[in-house]
Amino acid sequence: NGQETYVPVAVRQVKFYRRPAHGDSLHTHATMRSKNSGDQSTLEGDIILFDEQGQVLIEASGVLLQSLDGKAQDYLRQRINQLLYRVNWELQAYDERRRQGAFRKNWLIFSGHDGSGLRLAEHLRAGGANCVVVTPGQAYKYLEMQQYELSPSVPDGFYRLLKENFHEDDEAAIGIVYLWAMLAPPLNEGSPQQVCSVDQDLCCIGVLHLIQAIAEVKKEANARLWLVTNGVHPIEAQDRTTAIAQATLWGLGRVIVYEHQDLRCSLIDLNTVSSEEQSTTLLKEICADDEADEVALRGERRYIARLVRHTLPTEQEQEGTGFQPDSTYLITGGLGGVGLRTAQWMVEQGARYLVLMGRSEVTEEAKKILRTIREAGAMVSVMLVDVTQRTQLAQALAWIRREMPPLRGVFHSAVVLDDSILLQLNRERFLQVMLPKVEGAWNLHCLTLEDPLDYFVLFSSAASLIGSPGQGNYAAANAFLDMLAYYRRQQGHPALCINWGRWGEVGQAMKENRGGRLDLRGFTSIKPQEGLTALGSLAGQKLPQVGVMSFHLRKWSQFYPKLSRSSLFVRLLEEIGTEGESQDGEWFLTREALTELDDEQRQAMLSQYLGTQIARVLGYTSAQLEPRQQLHRLGIDSLTAIELKNCIGADLNVFVPVTVFLQDITFEQLTQQVQHFFCQSLS
To answer: Which residue, 283, 355, 445, 551, has fewest beta-carbon neighbours within 10 Å?
Structure first.
């Protein structure tokens, strides 16, 4: 009767004949029939696409359509479930682990003036190790034998520390334990102090400068890095998230795994009580040298983080969701693409009073969308407010409470991007990206504690959940949102944090062809309607944090091969199988094969191998590279350089600094340099 809506759910066969000519008008012819006589809930048919000359381009047979009044909601639910992920902490007993790792003679401990760091150093020295302890201060200072002080915000101190104590010619392995994040004081809702000031110097900026110094002074393959926090993750029933400022280090650490895989960076979260037992447990964990990426230690209990699939609760289990027509809902970042789409959806769900908050003037495109929203019967107020400035935000909220219905929902989607690999970031660029996420979210939390909120939804990113190369600052910022959701829930306030993957059609990830790069690597976009459906389904659930992303791990790990051994992804790898074979037709080279060749043969094989790898990371089916071809003219940037470095390391067990790929060199010179590094590794 023309009143029912159908969605496609399956197709039996698709035949592709030819591409259309540019500018051609195309036509379709569909023949539909009920799958079961008299039953209109399911239709089946055939569809033909043809051009104006009548030539058939595509023929789809057995197209199955399901009525939205029938079982299509089940199919939609199944699709949303395919996008959902969460982190599960699995208990692993110590006696199930490997034997103790190799002894390291040299250690570098970034510690406070007392507590776990000094106790750890004492234990290591008692076992015969050389242990340099570094405490935070205002400037670089030698205090006494194996005792230094430096400022986390000044990069030169880290270079000087490594040069004076661990010269690049020293091939001895070095263990680095970073405990400074544990010195960050707990956040206080009554304090006006900004989160991104001293706290983030201790949590992230010090690590950023450490990574840059290691890359400059020390061979990464000879270093091993542990980043330690306490009280970030609520794992056991009695745990409380008290150290949300430290959470940013987890976002940064998840990016280090991609960009500096040879450091074998691991993240460890301790409980909140510093004790001798805690130091002993930490020592045991570090000396075991286990390959686990993310560990939480609670007394003698050891937990490993696993990324697993999440399933929506059933309708019976799910709390009621919806927007009240006599309430106000605030969207920060509301004038951006994702914010505007969210506003449209909220009005469709019953909201009638919206406040869209942003820092920039309203664009012409945004004005059109706002006009559509208002024509649908909603009252929309636009406020130019910087949410990182608490005074500005407080004044805006006071106006909302005075002039509008009660505020019952906050949706925080403000974002700033400044992507770059860690070696190219500085303190200013790092913190600038953190401000809207961290300061903005904390200000919203503090200033709405007395409002009768039904929703406090934080738009986080998949970058903080699984890491994202080139987005260390962004991942760190979003990790704060992740733990803020747990913190609010523990205090009895509503909160939901969604780690969004890339939205199609809208959002920051669509800019600068980021979308095409991510598609190639298996991180495809989700449709805005899918995202909004997921948002509606998750808004009333009990879990504080959920990832929503279209993520193909097998394809993703081809660009970051060591992820295939990641403890975070082990459950997903079990789903898809862990075979490491190359794809059909992909040219493959191993270290063993290269070792058997003479210099001339090796040069030729490396040239072929590197040409294939360069083509792959640039998205080409093949690349015929001239020896004198300049690499930078091919489009090699910092991210593709990391991918090339990682693949060469995984295939040939050769460490090539990322800076080699970013120099003004030819393809022939690159081949020669890789051969040089390979020969060095044999000696």
So the answer is: 283
